Amino acid sequence: MITVITLTGDRPLPFLLCQLWVSKQTVKPDQWIVIDDGKDPEPTNLVIDCEYIKRRRATNEPFHTLIPNLKEALNLIKNDKVIIFEDDEYYAPTYIERMSKLLDKYEMVGIGRSKYYHLPTRLYFKHNNMNHGSFAQTAFKSSFIPELRTVIEGSPFIDLRMWAKIQDIQEHEITPRDNKFSGNEIELNNRAFVFDDLDENLYLAMKGLPGRDGIGEGHRLYKYEQWRAEIDNDWEVLKKWVPNDYSIYKELRIE
Q1: CA-CA distance, 140 to 151, in Å (whole number)?
Q2: Distance between CA atoms of 234 and 238, rounded to whole angstroms?
Q3: How many CB atoms lie within 10 A of CB 30?
Q4: What is the spatial distance between Cα 139 and Cα 159, in angstroms, rounded to a whole number?
Q5: Cβ contacts of 226 within 8 Å, gap of 6 or more
Q6: What is the pLDDT, as a whole number, of residue 217?
Q7: Contact 143, 232 (CB under 8 A)
Q8: Can you name the residues that pair with 110 across neighbouring β-strands?
Q9: Which end of the chain, N or C, is less packed with Cβ atoms under 10 Å?
């Protein structure tokens, strides 16, 4: 039994696309939890059944509210497998199917070597990380939730704390740009598994969509020189990374 979690707020277009990607999955979630803390009213364009929670933000909460939203979602999980769907990511139709099969063997799974695409500029970049997955590409068993609660407080970059916890190491030992692993998959501490999906193209971190800004540096590929991002002049990279649905992004004409 599978639970999908989406944390959103003031991102109507990305959330609408997210509903589309969920609806196209070859394996559907048994429970989809959506926590929305946006100022916008509740959406009227829900195209797939979900447990939609409109959470009121506390006055002292930070701008980025991933942590309080996640804490709310953890209280609602009913199933053994938990898969994160961020609202502005692309997820291929076989994403849940692939992650669910891996969760039959491991307590946490993630996709390494993160792929980023900034739609307004068509800049793209592929990370080196292979000792953890980004939050948007992480899935875990419900048995991990008690440990997750012990590290949930802190910066919005919860993925680093999650992957440090499952490996029984310190957070500073999780290096986002780690390049010491040369293979396409790695087992970590006999509990977790990270793999490169380049042969399958299961997802794409799509940046630059309208709405509340995200927390990751990938939202600003055009700004940081260290990204060494390249430009996809002819749309071929987008077509390769999103082979089934790239035309949907292309037709958005976001600038």
Answers
A1: 15
A2: 9
A3: 13
A4: 11
A5: none
A6: 59
A7: no
A8: 138, 194
A9: C
Between CA 155 and CA 158 the distance in angstroms is 7
Report helix, strand or coil for 62.
coil
Integer Cα distance of 91 and 202 in angstroms: 6
**Is the separation of the CB atoms in 14 and 26 below 8 Å?**
no
Find the angle CA(152)-CA(206)-CA(154) to the nearest 5 degrees: 15
Buried b vs exposed e over 109-125: b needs ≥16 C-beta within 10 Å?
bbbbbbbbbbbebbbbb
Distance between CA 253 and CA 255 in Å, rounded? 6
Which backbone phi and psi does 165 adopt, to 5 degrees? -65, -45
Supply the angle between the helices 66-74 and 158-167 in degrees, to the nearest 10. Answer: 50
Judged by DSSP in three states, 75 sits in: coil
The SS3 call for residue 93 is coil
Sketch out the chain's domains with CATH numbers: 2-252 (3.90.550.10)
The answer to whether 36 touches 50, Cβ cutoff 8 Å, is no
- What SS3 class is residue 172? helix
Please state the pTM of the whole predicted model: 0.93
Tens of pLDDT, residue by residue over 181-233, are: 778 999 999 999 999 998 899 999 999 998 877 666 555 555 555 567 899 99
